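Deviation from plan, reported transparently: adenosine-5'-triphosphate complex.
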Amino acid sequence: MASKNKKTQEDNPLKNVIAHAKEYGFIFQSSEVYDGLQAVYDYGQYGVELKNNIKKLWWQSMVQLNDNIVGVDSAIFMHPTVWKASGHVDGFSDPLVDNKDSQKRYRADVLVEDKAAEYVKAGEPEKGKALEQKLGALLEAEDLEAVRQLIIDEEIVCPVSGTDNWTDVRQFNLMFSTEVGSVADESSTIYLRPETAQGIFVNFLNVQKTGRMKIPFGIAQIGKAFRNEIVARQFTFRMREFEQMEMQFFVRPGTEMEWYEQWKETRMKWHKALGLDAEKLQYHDHEKLAHYANAAVDIEYEFPFGFKEIEGIHSRSDFDLTQHQEFSKKKQQYFDDEVKQNYVPYVVETSVGADRSFLATFCNALTTETVGEGEKQKERTFLKLHPAIAPVKAAILPLNKKDGLPEIAQEIFEDLKYDFNCIYEEKQTIGKRYTRQDLIGTPFCIAIDYQTLEDQTVTIRHRDTMEQERVHKDELAGIIGNAVSFKNIFKQL
Ligand code: ATP
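Because the crystal trials were delayed, the predicted structure below was used instead.
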């Protein structure tokens, strides 16, 4: 029998996660044959399935389950004035600092935040909190010289050179720009979008009018975003090209806090429904609010490198729509029948990274346990993914390659493949094939043996318990269907 699963951060360091993701076809470094491109990653054959399933789960939970939320798919390129209006041209920057000895560049705020986290870890949470608050105040006041001094006072040194020989702290814009148009002097600078949200804001009236949407209502979008991130560590946690799943919920001014509380709760439930351990999830209120926001919270997951943001929930007031109204000179108002008033709606935003959600799910699922007794004891590694998001739902495995077993197995495969992503495999011993499926997180292995020839029954082997049961082959679709059903997940929300 399997022993109780025991998983700690020490058991599951990031390097194991990275190695597993690569070895089993989930995530590869981009352009690896050319030694890779930093902070850019490709999803492999199983990774793309897992990521698509996460995105589908998000889309359904937003658009399909709420009759007042609809989706859009806006372009990556947008009119450059969008980014003026949104504040990204002038304000979307990180404070950077270089170490003069190692020539390495860091985000000044991250250096201080890491130090604050060290205090918390060392049992001095008050000191950690005070440091975070101090940093928040200095950034708010845009006092970069004082941020540098804080780094020195806190004796923060460069991990490479070990010195505190820091340059001045400077702001660095994170947007990638390029030129549109073929003639150099007629071309103009445009940006790769750093967030998907603005594509929603500029379509607010298009969707509201054509969809005859009544407030409160939401617009959801999944798409790529690009940021020239400097601190490009921690695998897919911080990438230069990544995917966001964002929803802007438009509400009557004055009601935004109710909706903020509601979305905060709903989104936390979604992460739990995805299979993340409840004790590895927490809220983290923002110390420093953007000037237009009246509330903001992060949902954090405990990665092997600590609790970090996977989603942000922000009450953004009417900031974005008002800005677009000003810059475009076109009204962004809604006439509210109930109160007989025209107003610019307030917005509550939920914004989650598909890649961070993937990474959290992957870290959470990677499990190593000891199985067997005495001399037969050994380690078993498997991906304990929720069946609904597992890349492969069932592996169809004939015991061997003769006596008609492959033919029946093929029939079963043909029957199931329209509804479920299945694998057919007949090479190697059955034990080795089970192990391989465990490593990619397949919840069901279906073995076809000599008894199948007699009574049409097959063995189902369950990934997490390794228990086996015999069922009639006609029951398979029902059993798998029930386990992977999105309905069963959403009923918990
Ligand atoms: P961070 O403070 O970690 O840079 P952020 O507060 O800038 O994140 P938002 O602008 O709120 O992030 O973006 C919303 C979500 O998009 C984040 O919660 C995260 O899941 C995802 N995201 C943001 N930047 C990246 C990135 N560079 N790589 C992967 N995902 C990202």
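Confidence is low (pLDDT under 50) at residues 1-10. We consider this an acceptable substitute for the interim report.
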